[in-house]
Amino acid sequence: MSFFMWYRRSIALLFALVPLCSVGSAGAQAYPTKLMRIVTAATGSANDWGSRVLAQELTGSMGQQVIVENRGGLSMEYVAKAPPDGHTILGYGSAAWLTQFLRDSVNWDIARDFIPVTLAMSSPNILVVHPSLPVKSTRELIALAKARPGELNYAAGTIGAAPHLASELFNAMAHTNIVRIGYKGTGPSVIALLGGEVHLMIAGLGSVAPHIASGKLRALGITSAKPSALAPDLAPIATVLPGYESTSVLGILLPAKTPVAFVSRLQQEIARAVHKPETKELLFKAGVDANGTTPDEFVAFVKNETARMGKVIREAGIRE
Fold this sequence. Notes:
The chain contains 13 helices and 10 strands. With 320 residues, it is of the alpha/beta class. Strands 1, 2, 3, 4, 5, 6, 7, 8, 9 and 10 form a 10-stranded mixed beta sheet that branches. The radius of gyration is 20 Å and the shape is globular.
């Protein structure tokens, strides 16, 4: 199934959800009937943290215990093969739909094996530099990088993760050659930047905010398309590079053929959970926006990301 067909199916699903809201509760009462699992990335990752927030909220509202199961890069294949009964849930970021561009083949097909539920959360990243780098704005960084092609470098952890692809998108749009220095995750990357081993990185707000506040790192811009309340003093990189946008997300998907009523129930409960005042405050303090989109909006996001970042991956020759 193509992304276009998946998109069409999600629109049909969206309209199908409307009458379900006014129908009696018979379908909803049949789900869930047992323990539910959100299968996600490695322990300690942003996807893991977001999934745990959801698990805690959903345990109360769904009437069954919801746990988090960390399966890392095997998550997609595992959920794709799970029974389509709504009890095994995929909670993952862009790797779920971009890994196909990083490998010769994968053991799942995002359009064939999954049905979209919601884009639950999103988080813009921050462009930060070591204070020794003589730049105080995104524009100055681009000018320096062009004057010193191949001399500046950036830290990034997992190949194909948001910090890596955000940096390569920056290179592509700014026509710069800032070289990647690989580390085993965001934590080691931040430590390297703090120690002056590398010049800059694009990282999640939560991982660099304390160092920005202490003056150990200098923030130049935010990767959201528009100014964000999460970092109101930072201008979007898009003000210098029109169209630039890169966010880390937590998307929720179910195995294909999951009953529409179950998809509807889960989407509604997640949307309600992330928009609870106390949950929104928790997310905000962690540098995360609450979304809880419709399936249609989620697929539109995936289509856009696949087109934009797939092109960047191919042209930069990025491979796992």
